[in-house]
Amino acid sequence: MKRLWFALVAASLTPVVLAGQRDVSTRLAGHVPPAVVAQVQGLADTAVARGLPVDPLVNKALEGAVKGAPPDRIVAAVRTVLQQLDRASDALRPVGVTGANAIEAGAFAIAAGLDSGQVATVARSADRAHPAATALQVVATLVALGVPPGRGVGLVQATIRAGEPLGDLVSLPSRLQVAMAGGVPPAAAAEGLERAALNHLTPKAQGHGKGQGNPHRP
User: Fold this and answer.
1) How far apart are CA 37 and CA 61, in angstroms?
2) What is the model's pLDDT at position 202?
3) DSSP string computed for 143-196
4) Of 38, 37, 54, nearest to 46 (Cα)?
5) Which residue has the higher pLDDT, 21 or 28?
6) How much is the pLDDT for 6?
7) Which candidate, 88, 156, 167, 150, places its Cα nearest to that of 126?
8) Counting C-beta atoms within 10 Å of the first and last residue's C-beta, which end of the chain has fewer, N or C?
9) Is residue 34 scored above 60 in pLDDT?
10) pTM of the full predicted structure?
């Protein structure tokens, strides 16, 4: 079973994005043909102009190089990532989420199968204890593991609403895999985890209403 691992970073990535923009060509040189370097640099320039993170573009190009993909496929894959970042940013901006972490996680969620509305819903549910970037990374992983997007969104929302610790939110994919290893289908496993989270809701948490998170979302 394919496993997806993520680095859950709490600090803002803005300085990293700016640094990444300056050394895109340096990071790619020697790994991909010069023509690919130039095209990826151009896409990175576009990303910076739109306020989007650059690292996902560079990483996708390097991934293609490691896999031995032809130049045109590498550039096409990088362009697809840029489009996903753009869609994620457009979905997150109206709910007040603009951080590079969240945009990158939103792009991955879109790549996994969520639509823009679902990305916005997850971000809207986030609060200070459960950052939007983390919530999006988790739901993307759940969907990549076979959970239907709507069910994944519901599970993440229920976990946040129940006031569960951040570690419990982050551990949802591994808990899902444990259930799946026992023969439970992904959707049914996610439903069971959601039911357990809802059973932990306190009267105060229930009063907040579904999808209403802290307005100060990282």
Assistant:
1) 9
2) 54
3) HHTT--HHHHHHHHHHHHHTT--HHHHHTHHHHHHHHHHTT--HHHHHHHHHHH
4) 54
5) 28
6) 38
7) 156
8) N
9) yes
10) 0.81
Distance in angstroms (rounded) separating the CA atoms of residues 132 and 113: 17
At 109, which helix (H) or strand (E)?
A: helix 100-112
Can you read off the two tokens belonging to residue 126?
């986030």
**Ramachandran category for residue 209: left, alpha or beta (phi over 0 → left; psi -120 to 50 → alpha):** left
Instruction: Collapse the DSSP code of 127 into the 3-class scheme (helix H, G, I; strand E, B; otherwise coil) and give the result.
Output: strand
Mean pLDDT calculated for residue range 195-218? 58
Nearest partner of 157 among 7, 149, 100, judged by Cα? 149
pLDDT confidence bin for 217, thresholds 50/70/90: low
Rounded to 10°, the helix 71-92/100-112 angle is 110
Band (pLDDT 50/70/90 cuts) for residue 22 is: low
Q: Which pLDDT value is given to residue 9?
A: 33
Q: In sequence order, what are the residues at sequence separation of 6 or more whose Cβ sits closer than 8 angstroms to the Cβ of residue 134?
A: 8, 105, 126, 166, 169, 170
Residue 143 corresponds to which tokens in the numbers above? 């969907």
The length of the chain in residues reads: 218
Helix (H, G, I), strand (E, B) or coil at 29: strand
Q: How many helices (H) and strands (E) does the chain have?
A: 13, 0
Question: Looking at beta carbons, which pairs linking 24-30 to residues 24 or more positions away fall under 8 Å?
Answer: 24/54, 24/57, 24/58, 27/58, 27/62, 28/58, 28/61, 28/62
CB distance 146 to 137 below 8 Å: no
- Mean pLDDT across the chain, nearest whole number? 87
Please state the domain extents for the chain.
Answer: 12-95, 116-218
